[in-house]
Amino acid sequence: MHLTIYPDKATLGAAAAADAAEAITAAVAESGRARIIVATGASQFEFLAALIALPDVPWDRVELFHLDEYIGVPADHPASFRRYLRERLIEPAGISTVHLLDGEADPRAECARVGALIAAAPVDIAFVGIGENGHLAFNDPPADFETREPYLIVSLDEPCRRQQVGEGWFADIESVPTRAISMSCRQILASRRILCIVPDARKADAVRAAVEGPVTPYVPASILQTHDDVTVYLDVASSAQLQKR
Questions:
Q1: For residues 189 and 230, is the Cβ–Cβ distance under 8 A?
Q2: How many angstroms separate the CA atoms of 16 and 10, rounded?
């Protein structure tokens, strides 16, 4: 695990975007396409804005998957991750090959449908974040570190749901769904390269636990320590609790 620390969110986002563009271009040069996984949430705003602004990224050769989606939330809801990705990446970049999780479909059937698609070939790059509760995708603690299923139906814990309210996606915690579809931890780890983008002071405790603590299901993002090619992008605020800065 390689840690990089930047002065602020904008600098962090630009650096992560430059590395992401290089990784996508390299994957396309090697195999003719790049299969990528993209995270959502407020922590990814600066990164995605910087990424779509870069020239010459071969978006027409990109195949996109995403990490998670609320069960029961329609595609036009302000909190829908399908909407988030369409507005912030897919449409601006012009990505045509996308496999979005339908939160209104039968959850088990949707896990099987998109799971079969992502399992069909290796994933080149995953862009992920870390939740305030240490979650990876919507794998809240204690996460399932064992399953090899690509996608799971998960329950969202209260800290996770409060984070969604705090970021402004929902008016109150009663409005936040209690279940979601999430990519499994093992499926994320199957990516050849992982870029983990984590700005903001509210993530500092989770960052410390994930990168300096033991690997444990009670800090789901700690499993990233076991991957051979992970770069973690932090700003001064999110790295503030690290003992080995």
A1: no
A2: 10
CA neighbours within 13 Å on the CB side: how many for 65? 32
Instruction: Write out pLDDT tens, residues 139-185.
Output: 999 999 999 999 999 999 998 898 889 988 888 999 989 999 999 99
Supply 138's token pair.
């919507």
Residue entry with tokens 């040069």: 29
Q: Which residues of the chain fall below pLDDT 70?
A: 245
How far does Cα 109 stand from its chain's mean position? Answer: 22
30-45, pLDDT tens digit by residue?
A: 999 999 999 998 999 9
pTM: 0.94
Tell me which CATH code domain 2-235 carries: 3.40.50.1360
The amino acid sitting at 233 is Y
Strands 151-155 and 68-70, bridge-based pairing: unpaired
Angle, helix 9-31 to helix 45-53, in steps of 10 degrees: 50
CB 36 within 8 A of CB 123: yes
Domain ranges in the chain are 2-235
Q: Please report the pLDDT score of residue 64 as a whole number.
A: 98
Q: CA 11 to CA 1: how far, in whole Å?
A: 20
